[in-house]
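User: quick one - fold this with magnesium ion bound?
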Amino acid sequence: MRNVEFHNREKETKDIRAILDRRPTLITFIYGPINSGKTELINHVTSELSDEYVVFYINLRTKFLASYDDFIESLFEMEMESNGVIKKGKETLAELVSSITKVAGIPINKEFLDYVFKDNKPKNAFSYILKLFEEVRATGKQPVLIIDELQKIGDVNVNGSLIYELFNFFIDLTKEAHLAHVFVATSDSLFMERVYSEAMLEGRCRYLRVDDFDEATTTAFLEVHGFTDDEKSVAWEYCGGKPICLVELVNTEEDRRGKAEEMLKIRKGQIEEIVYSLEARDTEMFDVVMGLLSEFIGKEKVGYKYISDGIKFLVGKNIIFADSMNKELRAQSKLNLLAVREVIANA
Ligand SMILES: Nc1ncnc2c1ncn2[C@@H]1O[C@H](COP(=O)(O)OP(=O)(O)OP(=O)(O)O)[C@@H](O)[C@H]1O
Ligand SMILES: [Mg+2]
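Assistant: Sure. Structure tokens for the protein plus magnesium ion:
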């Protein structure tokens, strides 16, 4: 397999750097279709930051989150002894801060953790993080908190919804205390729709879209990997600017057209499975869904007024991406668009 280097993203990198240069005031939501390169971009930008910034990156993707305790465990990092027991030390906050290595969870020791777990109160966790960030600032550095895949805590309840407590905390960190930069990334458009229409966030956050590559960026990316003109046009035709799909073609040494056709065939089969099993369960919903998909026959973008059940279904199956900011529906990728068109044509 080839080593695919990070490619371009000049504009998005510049936007994030400009935010980091200023005093923290707003929460930044990084959103976009699935596999567009959000996580990759965040990792790239943070890996290039100077020591002036202390980054706390938490990716909730692989975490199991059903309760408050799960959430706390996902946020904090504890030093372990080689036998797997939590290291007991008499570290102070200052000592914890000085031991921070780049891009990890939030460091904590046994004593503070007991406090944070006490009473199942998110406030305890947040007040600990606040103190830790103040300690970071006291050393002349700027804390940056990044939570990837935040939608995973969407339904966790702790005497009320955890997500609201968390939003309040983020507002406190940014707009009120100007203490830390807060970035939240998600590819869940239903979650973004909730964020976008959430009154408590009104005027307190900004949105940064990380989309698939545009055509010029895609071409440049493929040229780096020695694609012929024919291979470039096949790649654009089937994958559009979806990085993960392009990387798959880069890693295919022979018959890239065959590989692209195979990827399309697989996606078409999956979408058929999704819609026809729906028909077997719920013909009314099936008609709605097929109606929605038919709109993509001649168009790539379709406007919408609100997230209907049909849209919710297609978004939930990762076929459609709903861009709440622009009130637009698009296929999650070029491959999805082509597959949808074939499914409709064969219906
Ligand atoms: N700028 C880039 N240069 C090279 N490859 C990239 C780039 N961005 C993304 N990729 C490739 O695409 C894959 C998917 O990217 P990434 O996981 O960052 O997407 P994402 O938007 O975070 O996905 P998800 O929607 O699942 O959160 C990466 O593993 C990488 O192989
Ligand atoms: Mg990601």
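One thing worth noting: The mean pLDDT is 90.
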